[in-house]
Amino acid sequence: MRFRIHNFAICLLFLACGRSPQAEKGYFLYNESTGISSLDPAFAKSQATIWATHQLYNTLVEVDATGSIVPSAALRWEISADRMSYTFYLRSDMFYHDDPVFPGGTGRRLRASDWVYSFSRLLDPAVASPGAWIFRGKVDSIRPFEVLNDSTFRLNLLRPYHPILGILSMQYCSAVAPEAVERYGADFRRHPVGTGPFRFAAWAEGQTLILKKNDRYWEKDERGASLPYLKGIRVSFYDSKATEFLLFQQGKLDFINDLDASFKDELLLKSGRLKPQWEGKLILQTHPYLNTEYLGIVMDSTLASDALRSKKIRQAINYGFDRRKMILYLRNSLSTPAESGFVPEGLPSYDSARVRGYHYDPARSMQLLVEAGFPGGKNLPLIRLQTIPIYAEMANFIARQLGEVGIGVQVDVVQKSLLLDLTAKGESPFFRACWIADYPEGENYLSVFYSKNPAPPNYTRFKNARFDALFEQAIQEVNDSVRYRLYQEADRLIVEEAPVVPLWYDRVIRLVGQNVEGFYPTAQNLLELRRVKKN
Questions:
Q1: CATH class of 289-508
Q2: What are the structural domain ranges in the chain?
Q3: Which residues lie below 8 Å from residue 260, measured CB to CB, with a gap of 6+?
Q4: Are the beta carbons of 383 and 410 closer than 8 angstroms?
Q5: What is the pTM of this model?
Q6: Cβ pair 464, 497 in contact under 8 A
């Protein structure tokens, strides 16, 4: 590791003298090291896919910079007195991107029937969308979606569900063109047709994705100028974070999301600020990020490992390592130790006084081992923790500290695609994961433990009748204060039962080129490019 950092530092010094003029004028350039598997919003479960599909499609509502739900494709909406029906009045100036599926190749106007089609498609078992859970058990089973006329759409619920507007802001809930889905079939994943600010141009998978400005996009800025300002977007797919940084330094990328552990110490002080030699050469952006990083424990009795079936062992793990030290040395202070439950700071229901999580207490950890029947860790089976390469250092830090209190942990590093598959199937008893907010509501985090939810989001297979009752009461509660208290009680129960080991509440960390304007991070770390300009 020292050799790698040292040689990388030499490369940085060689390239730091200035940005290359090679960047194409008017195009926003970024790299997606994890790859993009689909441009179909029905499969927008990863950040990489969400970022891309957000440029191509629109949802009925969206989350603004303050975390509020605001109109997008819907001009306004009405909620019935019984809170079971939501009626949306649609814009009349939204058109699908031009494409051969339409007569004359000209995109037609977006209609209410398109929302019925798009939402029904999410629930279609033949589509097998990982987003089906967002409507399953929530919308009316007979007539969930209705067309009242071309510009009026209605969604009907089984029972009141307060977070439904947040659900509708998710990328899963984008309007797709039925003609394109039917024409392209399985190839729709790589031939998207939406209404968003950018339209699909070309995609050489694993190499380059090109999106171009949608000249018929409806949105305008405060001066009446059409959005977006950019000519287009170019996405590269280098899997090396070192290569990504070098390209950024050469002006071939406009920003980098997050910093690889192998070179963050070359850029940042332990306080989280840029080192003096980098000031004026690039822009560091940080922002509270609605993302909880955690270790998950499968609770299903048929799948859980023997050691982790004991609540006292799970609690001992939570007490057995120093989150604050981990954040200082491995995250350069750019995160908050998760010492207050699963719901992260930045949400209105977060209250560290009402939800007290775990802190470093090795004595308490060792006492719990005694109570569990494993004094000093004697006869405690080895616990295997599965993680992906970029979190290997973090996992090894935790394993070392747990070893000091008597909990033996073996870190198994696997590729991200394999870990995602294993956790979806419940075949990884102890795993590293994260939960990024789909919308700014505590319910979104607590849904991870609701027993009626599959995986995703309930990767731990947690099942608790008291928790379910609190969750169901909360999602029907319209009084914010009462709802937040219910969230907090449910989160305290998660702390007690310990199906997860919360690690940190995250922050967006971005390096941005100095020629980029109007590019700001959000609490959901959405890639928002409608108002971005390049000098």
A1: alpha beta
A2: 34-196, 289-508
A3: 241, 242, 245, 390
A4: yes
A5: 0.85
A6: yes
